[in-house]
Amino acid sequence: MKFRHFAGGLIAATIAAGPALADKLDDIIASGKLRCSVVLDFPPMGSRDADNNPIGFDVDYCNDLAAALGVDAEIVETPFPDRIPALVSGRVDVGVASTSDTLERARTAGFTIPYFAFTNVVLTKEDSGIDSYESLAEHTVGSVAGTYEGIQLEDDIKAWDKGGSFRPYQSQADVFLALAQGQIDATVVTSTVASSIVSGGKYEGLTIAGDAPYLPDYVGLIALRQEYGLLNYLDLFINQQVRTGRYEELYAKWLSGPAPDLTIDKAYR
Amino acid sequence: MGNYTFQWRQALRALPQMLDGALVTMQIAILSMLIGVTIAVFLAVMRNSKSRWLRAPATAWVEVARNTPALFQIYMAHFGLGSFGIYLSPYVALLAGIAFNNAGYLCETFRGSLRAIPSTQLRAGRSLGMGPATAFRLIVMPQMFRIAFLPTMNQMVWAILMTSLGVTVGMSTDLTGVTQDLNARSFRTFEFFALAALIYYLITKVVMLGARLLAWRLFRY
Hints:
By secondary structure, chain A is of the alpha/beta class.
């Protein structure tokens, strides 16, 4: 009788412990599906084509990752502010969403090594008289809420304290609308977005007025902080993407010019 | 949620910033109510008027204010007017949008209250030698505010909560704006938004308590 209780308990414990041992990486492989959160109003990283299908660098990156894992990819559209809730609530497995790897955020989310890097430029109207980043100090400027460049610009405007003000808008489209209307005098955006909007012709009279002197905005993939198995796999995957030339290939497909260097001189990782 | 560890200390450290935001939120809500109530009294009188030229604009205001989303009204105050070269800052656009909305709703509240006041009240005032405006101001309006008081406070709560829509027009200093900024920097989404929800709850409770006290002083017979 005693033995039967013991054996039963042991079996029950084994069954109960079973799923707990499997980590996120196991879960993804077992489910046959990789769910990536991708921001789809951020071309050329993520957007939709004429048939409403998700396209972009991040979408291709997710598909490559799914292929490497031997599973099917599922793109889950996720606005910038929803990236962490999507991960935590289990709606997605990985964030392929141009997430800047700040130390403050890394206290909450798990970051991989950088898989992409942005540089930022000042975008303004031709007649605004703004010719450099420093000349933004006295102006009303805006950017997308919660982005790397938006946070830096807001901090600089506050530090300069020369009568300028910062407005965080909810989407890139609202920022361009505000700039085109004259509600704001300038914005700081990633060089890729700036050149596509200037050449796009949707808004007239916009011009790029120099670089923003920020450190390169390195972005990583994100996963839950405690999922070391998955994060390790993602690091290796990014390394392989660069090693095999796939990173350059995707860069050439979605952007132009030389692909940014993802390594940092004189430091590991 | 089993895979998320709440870090309340980090959120509580940002509490002073959030409380600053709460002050801006209360400021906008109170100003929007003062403006809204003033406009609503005129709209209610206009809608009760016999002249079509007074009735029509008031009706149009009420129809738009009550039958379109507040988000749309605030967005239009910023980007809509902006396309005509009229630039309202996020603060003013938010205030204008909510005041517009308040005026529309309160107009109908006041109009209903006016109906509840017997016309003999006005005539009694007139028989004492008051002019129509004086009689309305001294006899009818105090009764109207008394009847409309609770629905007006309802609108006040609604105004406080509507201020959270300011983020759509670039508002960064109110409670939601501050919360969103903190969230973007730290990714501590759940802590910051839970704290913000609690602060909104407390603001409305405090305002309601203040209103009760005010009503107790103003409206006793």
